[in-house]
Amino acid sequence: MIADHARAQLLYRLVGPSESLRKEISEKIEGLAHAEFVLEIPFLKLRTVPGIETMVAAYTTDVPALTKWGAPVLMGPGSIHVAHTEREFISKKQLHDAWTCTVRSHACC
Predict the structure, then answer these.
(1) What letter would DSSP give residue 45?
(2) 3-state SS, residue 67
(3) What CA–CA distance (Å, rounded) separates 108 from 105?
(4) Burial of 72 (0-12, 13-18, 19+ CB in 10 A)
(5) What is the dihedral of CA 79, 74, 84, 81, to 10 degrees?
(6) Is the model's pTM score more than 0.85?
(7) What angle do CA 29, 31, 37 make, to 5 degrees?
(8) Per-residue pLDDT of the chain (109 residues; tens, 9 = 90+)
(9) CA distance 43 to 14
């Protein structure tokens, strides 16, 4: 049995511009299907703070929407792997270190 209609939703998390991926998807499905690119949270290079380690995470953030607040910095205590889940927690030391780090980062602005 073959269904009359099918639908798929794809989610891609990129750490760079999306134009080439959108173009490739459109070319591959041309004449076969319709692609709708509904939501794109743009790649954004965030400001770094001297002395604070940086990383790339395969998660999204609403920081690109906060453009009126100056140069964006995304940082915080705890682990990104449990952030916003029922397992999220931070220790008192992490909270203290985060406060110290935040104060230090504002001094660098």
Answers:
(1) P
(2) helix
(3) 5
(4) middle
(5) -30
(6) no
(7) 45
(8) 888 888 888 888 777 788 999 999 999 999 999 999 988 877 777 788 888 888 877 777 888 777 787 777 788 888 888 888 999 999 999 999 888 877 776 655 5
(9) 7
